[in-house]
Specification:
The chain is of the alpha/beta class. The chain contains two helices and six strands, in the order E-E-H-E-E-E-H-E. Helices cover 22% and strands 18% of the residues.
C-alpha cells in the first residue's frame, strides 16, 4: 500500500497525540476534492490546516494529511486519541466504489497491524 505524503503550510503548531484508541471514518461531503482542497477549507475555519490524518480518493489513492502521531481536527471531543480518515465523496448521495472501499479497508487494516492495537472504526455524522 502506498501513501502519498504531502508538505503543508500549517497555520499553527501541531501537537503530539499520546495514544491512539480508535479510527474515525469520515466522508468529505463533496463529490470531488483533494487534500489541498481540504487543507484550504480547514484553514478557512481557523484550524491549523487539514484535520484528517488521511484522505482516500475515489481512485483508491491514499494521501497523508496530518502526521499520524499528531492530534487531529476531525471529531470534536475525540481528536485526542484518534486517527481521522476521510473518504472523498458525498455518501449521503452516492455509493463508494470498490477501488476506494478496498483502499480504505487496506488503510484501516494497515493501521491495526502497524501498532498491533485493536481499533473499532466509528462512523462520524
Amino acid at each position: 500500500m502506498q501513501i502519498i505524503r504531502k508538505k503543508y503550510n500549517w497555520a499553527s503548531p501541531l501537537f503530539k497525540r499520546n495514544k491512539t484508541n480508535r479510527i474515525i471514518l469520515h466522508h468529505a461531503q463533496a463529490k470531488t476534492c483533494s487534500v489541498e482542497d481540504i487543507h484550504q477549507w480547514h484553514l478557512k475555519k481557523g484550524w491549523s490546516g487539514i484535520g484528517y490524518h488521511f484522505l482516500v480518493r475515489k481512485d483508491g489513492t491514499i494521501y497523508q494529511g496530518r502526521p499520524e502521531d499528531t492530534i487531529g481536527a476531525h471529531a470534536k471531543g475525540a481528536n485526542h486519541d484518534s486517527i481521522g480518515i476521510c473518504a472523498e465523496g458525498d455518501f449521503m448521495k452516492e455509493e463508494m466504489n470498490p477501488l476506494q472501499l478496498n483502499a480504505l479497508i487496506d488503510l484501516v487494516s494497515y493501521r491495526q497491524d502497524f501498532q498491533n492495537l485493536i481499533y473499532w472504526p466509528k462512523g462520524h455524522r
